[in-house]
């Protein structure tokens, strides 16, 4: 590293020396060319006018090369004027001492012209630099407001600062254990800022919140300037700028400080956003956990109490109950167990949907057979309600996971039974329309309020008209997940007269079973 640094400094010095030599050579050539032109065609002009012409090289050198080359142009022009146009000609001696006053006036005017031109050039240069700096700050601020991740934000900052300053950039942020790490860098030399000395300086800057490195009073020998990414409250990180051969200008350092303030503000905004998202996620998780525990405990307690009471009656009062009574108690135990089984099945289904582990065992499904299985599962709690099944002839066949689709229909039909009064009708209809198979369940229950239609399929959400009926709010959410995993849709809407209409639309598939379809598993 030291040898590389020495070579970089020597190269910069040699390049600067070469530029100076070219400037002086150009000035000399310009004065010589002007002298040749004036010597050939300037005889009719007065010597005072000829002297004024020699101010042009002075002005040119001041505007394009700076103050020192312009002073050199003034001296060279005076000597050329004396040699070619002041008697005795082709000699540096002066016959008339009044020309010495002319030389003095010429040099004074040349010096004033060079100074004003050089100052104007410097002001124009500073104005352009400040305009570029302002544009760079504006561009960086716009980019930072559109980025919501720390890594992308730091990459944008490194690229923008590198392009503006024209140097390699490295950005350091504290890690998970408060260890400083080089997090981002500009395209190009990725090795800059990786050494142990760079890490030591970056840690010092992070702890003290002040600049260090090249051009400062702290560790000034290092070939780079380290600037804190700081707001009024804290320091979020450090940005390092490579400066091998020379100290960065005061304007560049102020620009880097402005970049650091903008970057720190953006980092603070992103971190605050991430913390807000984490807090929201934590609150949502807590809400779901509480709702789940409340719903599950209530839904399990009711069938468990029924099962325990019926089982206790059978055990303790075996001689009291008639065979019909015992059969009724056994039916009650079975219904309670089925209710608990549905609850556990729904919970497991929701876990699989949330974790992305739901696997579809695709096969061709006979709609008529599937409806028959669903009716067998719900017949224990239909009560005095009438279920009317209307299946298009011939019965549609469609691809899907029959077990999961049966769970969907069991949940929908169970809701229809639960929210419909005894003696009412429930209609299950199946028909194929084009490339879709539509299965609808219509009841004459309490219906769905308009305010509930958008959220009826959300987890743990229960409609405003279900307060008198127990439930977890998971059934329709699971139905939606399973149906969408099949590439279908599910909707719920109030019926015109009374009740609710739930419609499931599933892709019908091709009439002939594709090869390899049967028992194919697909992760969704």
Short description:
The protein is α+β, with helices and mostly antiparallel strands. About 55% of the residues lie in helices and about 15% in strands. Helix 1 runs parallel beside helix 4 and helix 3 (about 55-65) runs antiparallel to helix 4 (about 65-85).
Question: Would you kindly provide a written description of the structure presented here, covering whatever features stand out?
Answer:
- With 524 residues, this protein is of the alpha+beta class.
- It has 3 domains: 2-135, no CATH class; 151-275, GAF domain (Beta-Lactamase, 2-Layer Sandwich); 360-523, Histidine kinase-like ATPase, C-terminal domain (Heat Shock Protein 90, 2-Layer Sandwich).
- It contains 12 helices and 13 strands.
- The radius of gyration is 44 Å and the shape is elongated.
- It is found in: Membrane.
- GO terms for molecular function: ATP binding; identical protein binding; phosphorelay sensor kinase activity.
- Its EC number is 2.7.13.3.
- The chain crosses the membrane at residues 21-42, 62-85, 97-118.
Q: Any idea what the radius of gyration is?
A: 44 Å
Please mark out the parts with pLDDT under 50 across 5 or more consecutive residues, or reply none.
1-9, 513-524
How many domains make up the 3D coordinates? 3
Under CATH at level 1, the class of the largest domain stands as: Alpha Beta
Taken as a percent bin, the fraction of beta residues is 15-25%
Give the CATH H-level superfamily of the largest domain.
Answer: Histidine kinase-like ATPase, C-terminal domain
Q: Care to count the β-strands?
A: 13
Write down the CATH topology of the largest domain: Heat Shock Protein 90
Subcellular location: Membrane
Keywords: ATP-binding, Kinase, Membrane, Nucleotide-binding, Phosphoprotein, Transferase, Transmembrane, Transmembrane helix, Two-component regulatory system
Membrane topology: Multi-pass membrane protein
Protein name: histidine kinase
């Amino acid at each position: 590293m030291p040898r590389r640094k020495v070579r970089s400094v020597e190269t910069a010095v040699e390049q600067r020396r070469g530029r100076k030599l070219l400037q002086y050579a150009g000035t000399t050539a310009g004065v010589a060319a002007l002298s040749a032109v004036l010597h050939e065609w300037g005889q009719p002009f007065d010597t005072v006018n000829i002297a004024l012409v020699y101010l042009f090289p002075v002005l040119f050198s001041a505007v394009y090369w700076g103050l020192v080359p312009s002073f050199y142009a003034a001296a060279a022009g005076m000597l050329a004027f004396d040699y070619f146009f002041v008697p005795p000609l082709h000699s540096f001696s002066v016959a008339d001492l009044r020309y010495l006053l002319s030389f003095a006036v010429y040099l004074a005017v040349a010096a004033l012209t060079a100074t004003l031109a050089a100052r104007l050039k410097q002001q124009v240069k500073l104005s352009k630099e400040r305009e570029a700096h302002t544009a760079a700050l504006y561009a960086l601020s716009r980019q930072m407001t559109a980025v919501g991740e720390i890594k992308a934000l730091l990459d944008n900052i490194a690229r923008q600062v590198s392009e503006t300053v024209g140097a390699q950039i490295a950005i350091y942020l504290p890690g998970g254990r408060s260890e400083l790490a080089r997090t981002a860098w500009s395209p190009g030399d990725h090795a800059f800022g990786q050494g142990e000395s760079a890490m030591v300086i970056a840690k010092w800057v992070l702890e003290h919140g002040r600049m260090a490195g090249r051009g400062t009073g702290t560790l000034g020998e290092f070939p780079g300037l380290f600037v804190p990414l700081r707001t009024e409250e804290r320091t979020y990180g450090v940005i390092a700028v490579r400066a091998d051969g020379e100290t960065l200008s005061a304007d560049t350092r102020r620009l880097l400080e402005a970049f650091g303030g903008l970057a720190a503000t953006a980092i603070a905004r992103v971190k605050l956003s991430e913390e807000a998202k984490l807090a929201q996620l934590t609150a949502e998780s807590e809400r779901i956990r509480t709702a789940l525990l409340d719903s599950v405990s209530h839904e399990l307690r009711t069938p468990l109490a029924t099962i325990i009471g019926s089982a206790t009656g059978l055990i303790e009062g075996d001689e009291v109950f008639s065979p019909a009574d015992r059969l009724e108690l056994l039916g009650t135990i079975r219904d309670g167990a089925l209710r608990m089984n549905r609850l556990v099945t729904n919970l497991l289904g929701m876990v699989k949907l949330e974790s992305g582990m739901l696997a579809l065992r695709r096969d061709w499904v006979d709609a008529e057979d599937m409806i028959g299985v669903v009716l067998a599962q719900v017949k224990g709690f239909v009560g005095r309600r009438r279920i009317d099944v209307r299946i298009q002839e011939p019965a549609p066949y469609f691809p899907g996971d029959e077990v999961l689709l049966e769970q969907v229909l069991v949940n929908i039909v169970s809701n229809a039974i639960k929210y419909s009064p005894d003696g009412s009708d429930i209609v299950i209809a199946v028909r194929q329309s084009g490339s879709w198979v539509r299965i609808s369940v219509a009841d004459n229950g309490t219906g769905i309020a308009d305010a509930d239609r958008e959220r009826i399929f959300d987890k743990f959400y229960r409609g405003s008209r279900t307060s008198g009926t127990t439930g977890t709010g998971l059934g329709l959410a699971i139905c939606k997940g399973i149906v969408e995993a099949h590439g279908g849709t599910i909707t719920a809407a109030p019926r015109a007269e009374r009740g609710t209409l739930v419609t499931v639309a599933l892709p019908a598939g091709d009439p002939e079973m594709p090869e390899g379809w049967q028992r194919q598993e697909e992760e969704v």
